[in-house]
Specification:
By secondary structure, the chain is an alpha/beta fold. The chain has one domain: P-loop containing nucleotide triphosphate hydrolases (Rossmann fold, 3-Layer(aba) Sandwich). 33% of the residues lie in helices and 16% in strands. The protein is built from eleven helices and ten strands. Helix 3 packs across helix 4, helix 4 runs antiparallel to helix 5 and helix 8 packs across helix 9. The radius of gyration is 21 Å and the shape is globular. Bound molecules: adenosine-5'-triphosphate. The site of adenosine-5'-triphosphate has 17 residues, from strand 2, helix 1 and helix 11. It holds the Pfam family ABC_tran. Keywords: ATP-binding, Nucleotide-binding. InterPro entries: AAA+_ATPase, ABC_transporter-like_ATP-bd, ABC_transporter-like_CS, P-loop_NTPase. This is ABC transporter domain-containing protein.
Length: 374
């Protein structure tokens, strides 16, 4: 592990830098480490390597051939609409869902063959509530310390450190049921941190929180990361969070990764595609070179918490799907505006995003998560 100055904000750039090519559809992700065998034997292993990862629930292909590598020390964001397969991928990496040998490695350990070794390296904050409302904050963290086999000698100090890291020392002796949504998320973070993980996995860590609580959660994540060099793998619906806090992101849709790179690389690649499209001869729009749909409106400032851009496109019985504007390649809509990450997503995911993202189960589970912390 590397040690940085804990007082300094975490760097936006991953400590381990290797040239990355932003993905351009329809090719496979161009990330240099998508192929683990490309790493030299002497190179330190990636924090996470997935090779052709797939997982199905019956007929539903939740994850459908994902190749990605998360580098040690980076904050890696897995983005996508409801039902994209983010949680399933995360659960495969945590070993909670079984996968065949060779598909997932965590710091070089195979998730199928070395399950316990993988688990010892992980801290995991699931979408579902993992804190016990009837216990105090401290008791909740102590419970996790025991479950994760923190030695009895170290336990009290580690629990105190974890609570301190998320600014819950003062509230530690209160029952968790008296905590606000933001405090519960921070408590869950303390639970995950108590085992001093090398890889922290967070599934929608800020869903349902107000903007201030969201920022606070991220500040704590970043402070711990800066102090310990831990790697963070996070799923989120919030594009703005990904832009601000993630070194690299993978955009996931229908079980597959559609784009992978730094937010800047992905935006630049879209800018270049739009420029090429603008130079091309006029033709009816059939390619994903320009966004087929107008951008999702930004959430209303009056809303208690920002609406995830993706969930607003979930199917609704009363809202018909938006109609694509008729457009040509020589006049892509908003081609001169600076593209956002959401534009990139719409570009690579195409028209399926609005109409078919997330079924009832997916939307319901997101809403449940949001309401239980809200
Ligand atoms: N336990 C399950 N049984 C059956 N199907 C499931 C189960 N869990 C997930 N799925 C399906 O697998 C697909 C991927 O779901 P997953 O929860 O991984 O997506 P997600 O991107 O994490 O979505 P969300 O943002 O809503 O959490 C969806 O079609 C979902 O309905």
């Amino acid at each position: 592990m590397t040690t940085d100055d804990p007082g300094r904000p975490a760097p936006r750039t991953a400590p381990v830098q290797a040239p990355t090519t932003a993905y351009e559809p329809p090719a496979e992700p161009a990330d240099r480490s998508a192929d683990a065998s490309a790493q030299s034997p002497a190179a330190p292993p990636d924090a996470v390597t997935c090779r052709a990862l797939h997982y199905a629930f019956g007929e539903t292909k939740a994850v459908d051939g994902v190749d990605l590598s998360v580098r040690p020390g980076e904050v890696f964001g897995l983005l996508g609409p409801n039902g994209a397969g983010k949680t399933t991928a995360i659960r495969c990496i945590t070993t909670l869902l079984p996968v065949p040998a060779g598909m997932v490695r965590v710091f070089g350990h195979d998730a199928a063959r070395e399950r316990m070794a993988v688990r010892r390296l992980l801290g995991y904050v699931p979408q579902q509530l993992s804190a016990d409302a009837g216990l105090t904050g401290r008791e909740n963290v102590e419970l996790f310390a025991r479950v994760f086999d923190v030695s009895r000698r170290e336990r009290a100090a580690r629990v105190a450190q974890a609570l301190e890291a998320v600014n819950l020392t003062e509230a530690a002796n209160r029952l968790a049921k008296t905590y606000s949504g933001g405090m519960i998320r921070r408590l869950e973070l303390a639970q995950a941190l108590v085992s001093a993980p090398r890889l922290l996995m967070l599934d929608e860590p800020t869903i349902g929180l107000d903007p201030i609580a969201r920022t606070t959660v991220w500040e704590h994540i970043n402070a711990v990361r800066a102090a310990t060099g831990m790697t963070v793998l996070v799923t989120t619906h919030y594009m703005d969070e990904a832009e601000q806090y993630c070194d690299r992101v993978a955009l996931m849709h229908r079980g597959r990764i559609r784009a992978l790179g730094t937010p800047n690389e992905l935006r630049s690649a879209l800018r270049a595609r739009r420029a090429r499209a603008a130079l091309a001869p006029t033709a009816p729009h059939t390619s994903p070179a320009s966004p087929p749909f107008p951008s999702t409106p930004r959430p209303s400032p009056a809303a208690p918490a920002p609406t995830p851009p993706f969930s607003s496109s979930a199917p609704s019985p009363s809202t018909p799907p938006s109609t694509p504007p008729s457009t040509t390649l020589s006049s892509p809509p908003s081609s001169d505006a600076e593209p956002t990450l959401e534009d990139v997503f719409r570009d690579v995911a195409g028209s399926g995003l609005d109409e078919q993202s997330g079924d009832f189960r997916d939307v319901r589970s997101t809403r449940r998560t949001a309401s239980r912390v809200g």
